[in-house]
Amino acid sequence: MTSRTSRFRLSDPSLFVQQAFVDGSWVKSADGKTMDVQDPFTGKSLGTVPDMTADDVASAITAAKAALPTWSALTAYQRQSYLNSLLSLMRANADDLALILTAENGKPLAEAKGEIAYGAGFVDWFAGEAVRTYGHNVPSAIPGTRNNVIKQPIGVCGLITPWNFPNAMITRKLAPALAAGCTVVIKAPAETPFSALAMCVLCERAGIPKGVVNCVTVDKGEREAACGLELCENPDIAKISFTGSTPVGKLLMKQSSSTLKKLSFELGGNAPFIVFDDADLDVALAGVVASKFRASGQTCVCANRIYVQRGVYEKFAAMVADKVSTFNTGDPMLPGTQIGPLVNSRGVDKVQRHVEDAVSKGAKVLAGGRKGDGCLFEPTVLSNVPADAAISTEETFGPLAALFSFETEAEVISSANDSEVGLAGYVFTRDVSRVHRVSEKLAVGMVAVNTGIISQPCVPFGGVKGSGFGREGGKGGIDEYTIEKLITIGGL
Ligand code: SIN
What we know:
This protein has 492 residues and is of the alpha/beta class. The protein is built from 14 helices and 22 strands. Helix content is 38%, strand content 21%.
């Protein structure tokens, strides 16, 4: 470990790697260029990783293609066994993985440990699913024939992963791909490459053969765009799984059209969080804390528009403000910290813009409202937010709870659905009929009722409209990495 990482000490320093992983080797970029990765709390460099080129991505794809025949020919039980080894290694190294994650992402350490458990959960789930990619037989309409439908791995997959869950968004894609028999090229996010590379160390230790898992690192800007284009246009990539913003998703989809790749996209959200007059307000408060302030507000499923019915509005707003005022903000490495720094200054600027915009249109600051040192932003509660505030239509991605009021169920459903995206939605009520009515009418891929926690490896995760398509996790998660092939047998 170099002195630059002296803010944290790993039990196993060899998990912190400053090279990319291609064809089973730790490599530099083709031209030797590197990029700095910063600790968002201190603003200091944590280390460097290769700033790779489209040619490096092409080499990684070639390696993944060469590894595909052998990996896909293993039995599902053999692939399951590799995944179980990876799972054991993740669990054994969870503390170190969490330290690396906190250092580069700024997520409070307790939450980072939670993310490693969540990430390991995907490996666990898909190790189980590996042996359940059942085909089926279909009664034939043609005399003397039989129809067998089998599932086969789709091929080499490009996995483009985000910085907000540097571990779990990799395992959510990597584990089903490996379980299905695919090989992969991961494009790690520029902000958090060390978590991705630590996972490659563990894949190597799990004995996963060379070329099956490859990971490239690249800085934001022109090179990243060129690497993305290579993944989308290279004919040897069969599928792209992407988690990130809606505009980038649209671009990747356009770029992938020339090679007609299978795609699954988990894109931006703007989650409505609806509290009806009859809700248990303590439960709703716990829901706001869980869904709005997880990862300091930097998740795609974070509550973004908090709609509170008129009868409980003042009371609930005061409860949220009181609670949020108690949050400890600061160094994510310290045990009591609940809100860490945002990932970069662009993130801070966006929260500030949303606060200023809402206040200029009549919103009241009930808690926080100001930028702190570096990339910190005070956890903030705004009441009386008007419908034309920027936060109504834009995902804040920061610790800002914006409270809107509403009168009727029909009105709030209409406001909630008045969005170009639809990932998650939250409903708080004690009325069972309303639970069904509202959940079914919300134009989102996932609804949480009387809870702020939605994400688990065993359920489908994904959105509608501008939030993308395809589902990760759950019973269908592995199908995103397979194709159904029909074999009709005649002459019987
Ligand atoms: C995301 O923010 O993209 C993922 C959040 C989750 O898995 O809960």
